[in-house]
Amino acid sequence: MSKFIYIYKGPATPTDQFTPEQGEKETAAWGAWMGRIGSALVEGGAPFAGGTALVDDGSTAAAADLTGYSVVEAASLDEAKALAEGHPFLSEGKGRFSLQIFELGQM
Q: The pTM is what?
């Protein structure tokens, strides 16, 4: 089994800006997805709270539109993709959000 990182990309609303109803709905959606994949979820992850990008010429730039991460365990990239089925981050259906999946290599 390998570990895969899911990196969430898109204009997600910070959780501190949710109404109580939105918070309950999002928590339930994430809980349902996490419950469905069970032990394949290695680390639930966290939302990103802001950042910057350091450039190799010594300057800084705006950070990419990345909003959080999770780590799953799967036998293959295809299996890691299948685990993302029904993921709440991909529920809008307007093409504004994506889930980037990378296998974590060995050092």
A: 0.89
